[in-house]
Amino acid sequence: MSPSRLSSLEPLTIDHWRWQPFLDHACAALEPFGLQPYPIEPEFLLQTSETGSKSKPIHVTTATWACSSTKLRQIRAACVEAGSAASVLNFVINPLTTYDLPFFGADLVTLPAGHLLALDLQPALKSDRDHTEKVWSRLLPIFERWQECLPHGGPIPEEAQPYFSPGFLWTRIPLGAEGDALIDEVVMPAFQDYLNLYLELVDSAETVEPDRSEALLAGQRRYTTYRAEKDPARGMLTRFHGSEWTEEYIHGVLFDLDKNRT
Ligand code: DBV
């Protein structure tokens, strides 16, 4: 990788990173949407550190790829490469609230205990049928096709339910050849299908009335506040890069809706 990143939209390549093909696919799929760089401070575009023991240090890279388009307020990939300690792609698309669109969310996480993988088109207003029905009727066949090839990831907190769709794909799979095959043959095509559907929804989305936009904004705020407060990566990022950097990254970059609205 180049020693520094000048723009959030610059192609991002991280050596030995498990999730590189997923980011490459997403960048290519998004390219036709007329992407603009998204302003991100240099210390969050690329950050390195060491973890592990003194005798066996592990080099850590955390990098951010981000952009916006006419309908999408923020598209961002948080990428972590820490050798045997962790490899992560957390990818979230946050639409403008002038469009009735869900979030795209992917959490692809490799830890020493195994891979944990989450994919969803997450609602801003889960109880609103105008917001959800047209998405879920198209998402469920895709979800069913791929989830049945994967073990279920186990229980998720009750309080998280309002933020998931019924097409939440969620699995934990072992490291090694068996897990790698599932990632190539199931998780990759699932990721492509979820993203394709999302981009079709974006393509056909039309602007909504101001009242509707206010309701969508309130829903996005709840979601963003929840994600920032409960970010499961907080512990890991704090170990790697310290608490000050991590809190600013979570609130100021990863889940920055309020920062840019107030
Ligand atoms: N998760 C993030 C960001 C990450 C990240 C920004 C930069 O939101 C990584 C990195 N997720 C990450 C890590 C773990 C998880 C776990 C490192 C493991 C934490 C650990 O075990 O130490 C899906 N991700 C999880 C868990 C869930 C999700 C349910 C398990 C939580 C737990 O066991 O406590 N994250 C959640 C979700 C989406 C998402 C549904 C969107 C599809 O991004």
Tell me what you see in this structure:
Helix 1 (20-30) packs parallel to helix 4 (177-204) and helix 3 packs antiparallel against helix 4 (177-204). The chain is of the alpha+beta class and 262 residues long. The protein is built from eight helices and eight strands, in the order H-E-H-E-E-E-E-E-E-H-E-H-H-H-H-H. The chain is globular and about 60 Å long. The structure holds 15,16-dihydrobiliverdin (DBV). 15,16-dihydrobiliverdin is lined by residues 78, 80, 88, 90, 105-107, 109, 116, 118, 120, 156, 231-233, 235-236, 254. 15,16-dihydrobiliverdin binds at residues 78, 80, 88, 90, 105-107, 109, 116, 118, 120, 156, 231-233, 235-236, 254.
Attribute tags:
single chain, about 260 residues, alpha+beta, oxygen-dependent coproporphyrinogen oxidase, eight-stranded antiparallel β-sheet, 8 strands, about 25% strand, binds 15,16-dihydrobiliverdin
In short:
The chain is an alpha+beta fold and 262 residues long.
SSE series: HEHEEEEEEHEHHHHH
Q: How much is the radius of gyration in Å?
A: 18 Å
Which structural category fits the helices and strands?
alpha+beta
CATH architecture: 3-Layer(aba) Sandwich
CATH topology annotation? oxygen-dependent coproporphyrinogen oxidase
Distinct helical segment count: 8
Termini gap: 35 Å
Q: Which small-molecule ligands are present, each listed once?
A: 15,16-dihydrobiliverdin
Helix percent band: 40-55%
Q: Can you summarize the main beta sheet? A: 8 strands, antiparallel
Tell me the number of structural domains: 1
CATH class descriptor: Alpha Beta
Number of strands: 8
Q: What is the average per-residue confidence, as pLDDT, rounded to a whole number?
A: 95
Spans of at least 5 consecutive residues whose pLDDT stays below 50 are none
Q: Looking at the structure, what is the overall shape? A: globular
Strand content: 15-25%
